[in-house]
Amino acid sequence: MVKMVLDNPASVAAPFGDRFAHVARVELAGGALLQLSGQVAVDDEGAVVAPGDAGAQAERIFEIVGGLLAAHGASLAGVLFIRTFMTDLGDLPAYAAVRGRLFPAAGKKPPASTTVEVSRLFLPGAVLEIEVTAIAG
To answer: What are the start-end ranges of the H helices in 71-133?
Structure first.
């Protein structure tokens, strides 16, 4: 039997209006598969961090993602897939610099990924939204 848990860990600010779960966890033999909701760069009060700055926003988003993963016994090392929504693909170098530092390819391939440009995100000033699939255990 498959067990699924929807979670909003207390270690990370709650999602806007509690309208969704930050993490969907599916228990597997010896671990779990984690699907994280799209994350944007916000502070603990929900204000956008570094409006318009893709590099700074990527740093904050992966900080949030790391906290969500840690709450489920996982880390960035367990990331299988990254889906990124950007409001301007011209910001790709700044975003890629952060990803390159966090997901080094030396001896290991980086996660599978998709990156797309979108016309806007739901919070003014947000230029990135990132979804992650990872394994725990």
So the answer is: 92-102
